[in-house]
Specification:
- The complex is a heterodimer.
- Helices cover about 40% and strands about 15% of the residues of chain A.
- Chain A is of the alpha/beta class.
- Chain A has a single domain, classed as TIM Barrel (Alpha-Beta Barrel).
- In chain A, a hairpin with a 6-residue loop joins β2 and β3.
- In chain A, α1 packs antiparallel against α2 and α8 packs parallel to α9.
- The longest helix of chain A is centred in the N-terminal third of the chain and has 20 residues.
- Chain A is globular, with a radius of gyration of 19 Å.
- Chain B has a single domain, classed as TIM Barrel.
- Chain B has eleven helices and twelve strands.
- In chain B, a hairpin with a 2-residue loop joins β3 and β4.
- In chain B, α6 runs parallel beside α8 and α10 packs across α11.
- The chains are: A alpha/beta, B alpha/beta.
């Protein structure tokens, strides 16, 4: 019997009141963004915002509750941008979006930091953690310390493993790896990307889901990813269902699976019936496998959406999973 | 060349030199602080400040900034887009089919009200005719009208209704065409289509081209059409963009200190170039000498009679006195170079034919 878990990829939009309050408190320029050492006032605003988004998830009936990553001004680059041995420089484009983040430049050893653990500890209701995957985090950053690509990827993986290991108890960890699709690893690097993910996944006692989006991972890196010791791989069934189902049919997948079935970048809200249809489509096209757990999620992070649509999408996901269970 | 000379009409009657380097701006300009306060007041129910008062404030701002452009000596002026809050939002509010759900993040704590296309788009009320008529009413200088292009209007919206972004862009292009028809009727002779989104998705240059064909359809020959693109890798859209039915390309090049100039000399630049000669992301006013050197870079791409002198992009994020200083030095640099060109004291690097 497959368990359907309604959850999200995290990185939520700030509630509108918090957008205003925090921009007043912090400012609009690149030097004003999060540093890891916030004033009490700023910390308190984030605390209230966090309660809001946890309430929204609970009310929507989601199974996987995340902290929301509301402090992640630099999106997936956040864990490096707040690190002492990382400089943040110019504003650079975030993948193929009209969004920007501060370019993190690693200028010293990536020592354990604990920023994400501290943030998650402030949300005891959360049962799911979110981190960037090592390949994407290395891809979003610039290295001026380790010297070569292989050493740098290894260092980012060890750093994330430390971060994952220090997290409070959670049931699940989502590792977000859009770079596996957007800037896929070449021959040789693909195996190391998989090893790096394995390093992070091995550091935590939780179910680990590696989720990628904005298309499908090319075949070879996908085949290597299957060697990583993770519990599930996540697929974007909004942007490219054909190539993703092809990977699963050709190379198989883990015992559990995450399905990006809600569009994180469009305000059109899916109905619970549409979400169930998408989940069933995948199941029907992978007839040889009965999944242990299906994580039903948005395909991307959710900060792209205005708050009303973000909440509506959480509700649709919650309702779809509830009906799936009773069906 | 198959297109009419649309440029000479903007030469001032008393222009002192034979050479004419058309000076203008991209469009947006810092808003006076009191205008932002006026917008807050209109939201404050405890104040006796209503929409009519705000309209008056917008007129005042538009007049003030147009005057500021005139004072700097520009040949073609804009009102600094005082009535526009943001380049997509402003138009989406006036187009049927759009709805707003709230602010979304661009970066850090910078947000915009990214609209959703919930229904087929349709022309409702004029977008810019009032703005144009007001501006021409407060100056004798020619006025340029910048319009956000259909491709950018489509890409920077949520698309709930159309199967593809391209289909949405084509429908929007028809609306832009309709707006231009009204602007032309009102006397407008210089229109600039802003397509910054092309820089982020250069592979879509053919879609932008098709949109521009729709936009230019039926526009009289003496109306000058420009295209503004900024902050991208131009080698991915050039020389293809030369095929677009526009007279002038307004490009940001000062920001990268002309490192991309080679792109435009490799294949002959057959249209007019509006060259970015001041950087809009440094709060430092470039010297006249520096700007003259930048303008001369343009002579490597086109001869002086096809060069327009302009900032890289809208000036709106700069402190107002810096924005003014940049325009003033830019005009001064152009006037000095024109005199030097008349006296044959300038080497023109343009090497075609």
């Amino acid at each position: 019997m497959t368990e359907v878990i309604a959850t999200t990829t995290g990185l939520f939009p700030l509630p509108d009141w918090a957008k205003e309050e925090l921009s007043d408190l912090k400012g609009h320029q690149k030097d004003d963004l999060i540093s890891g050492e916030e004033s009490e006032e700023i910390a308190s605003a984030y605390e209230r915002a966090r309660s809001d988004v946890i309430a929204a998830q609970t009310e929507a009936g989601l199974d996987g509750i995340v902290e929301g990553q509301l402090r992640w001004d630099d999106m997936l680059a956040h864990p490096l941008c707040v690190h002492d041995n990382v400089d943040t420089r110019g504003i650079v484009r975030y993948y193929d979006n009209n969004n920007f983040y501060r370019e993190p430049v690693v200028t010293g050893e990536l020592t354990p930091d604990g920023d994400v653990a501290a943030e998650l500890s402030a949300a005891p209701e959360a049962n799911q953690a979110v981190l960037p995957g090592p390949y994407s985090l290395a891809d979003l950053a610039t290295d001026e310390y380790y010297g070569d690509e292989t050493t740098f990827l290894g260092a980012v993986a060890s750093f994330l493993a430390e971060e994952a290991g220090s997290l409070p108890d959670v049931e699940t960890l989502f590792l977000l790896e859009p770079s596996l699709v957007e800037n896929p690893p070449e021959e040789g690097v693909d195996e190391r990307a998989s090893d790096a993910i394995d390093t992070v996944a091995g550091a935590i006692d939780a179910d680990v889901v590696v989720h990628s989006y904005w298309g499908a991972i090319p075949e070879k890196p996908y085949a290597h990813l299957m060697d990583a010791g993770v519990d599930a791989i996540g697929f974007d069934f909004v942007s490219d269902h054909e190539s993703n189902i092809y990977n699963i049919q050709e190379y198989g997948t883990k015992d559990s699976i995450a399905l990006g079935v809600v569009d994180g970048q469009n305000t059109l809200v899916e109905t619970p019936a549409e979400i169930r249809e998408r989940i069933n489509w995948v199941r029907e096209n992978v007839p040889a496998q009965e999944f242990e757990t299906v994580y039903a999620t948005p395909n991307t992070e959710l900060f792209y959406l205005p708050v009303n649509k973000f909440e509506a999408k959480l509700e649709a996901l919650g309702a779809a999973a509830a009906e799936e269970e009773t069906a | 060349m198959s297109y009419a000379d649309t440029r000479e009409q903007f030469r001032p009657e008393d222009h002192p030199t034979d050479h004419f380097l058309l000076t203008t701006v991209v469009g947006s300009y810092p808003k006076p602080k009191w205008l932002n306060r006026a917008k807050e007041l209109v939201d404050d129910e405890d104040r006796d400040f209503d929409e009519a008062h705000l309209e008056e404030a917008l007129d005042d701002a538009s007049r003030l900034i147009t005057d500021e452009h005139v004072r700097s000596g520009l040949d073609v002026v804009v009102d600094g887009e005082m009535r526009r809050n943001e380049m997509v939002e402003y138009f989406a509010h006036r187009i049927d089919g759009y709805e707003f759900n709230g602010p979304v993040k661009v970066w850090g704590h910078n947000y915009f009200d990214k609209p959703s296309v919930a229904d087929e788009v349709a022309y409702d009320e004029p977008w810019l005719v009032d703005e144009f008529e007001f501006t021409t009413g407060v100056t004798n200088r020619p006025v340029k009208v910048p319009i956000t292009g259909p491709y950018t209007l489509a890409s920077w919206s949520f698309n709930e209704r159309y199967d593809t972004e391209a289909e949405l862009a084509y429908d929007l292009a028809d609306l832009v065409n309709e707006e231009i028809e009204q602007l032309v009727e009102a006397g407008c002779r210089y229109i600039q289509i802003d397509e910054p989104a092309l820089a982020t998705t250069p592979d879509d240059h053919a879609i932008v081209g098709d949109c521009l064909e729709q936009i230019a359809d039926g526009v009289p020959e003496d109306v000058r059409l420009g295209l503004h693109v900024c902050y991208g890798d131009y080698s991915r859209i050039y020389p293809e963009i030369l095929e677009y039915p526009v007279h002038e390309y307004d490009l940001e090049l000062a920001n990268g200190d002309y490192e991309q100039l080679d792109v435009f000399t490799e294949t002959e630049f057959t249209k007019d170039l509006a060259l970015g000669v001041v950087d809009v992301h440094t709060a430092e006013i470039e010297s006249v000498k520096r700007i003259k050197r930048n303008i001369r870079k343009g002579f490597e791409v086109v001869p002086p009679e096809r060069l327009t002198v302009s900032p890289d992009c809208g000036l709106k994020l700069l402190p107002r006195e810096i924005a003014y200083g940049k325009m003033e030095n830019m005009v001064q640099a152009a006037r000095e170079l024109e005199a030097e060109l008349d006296a044959s004291e300038v080497d023109v690097g343009y090497a075609s034919e």
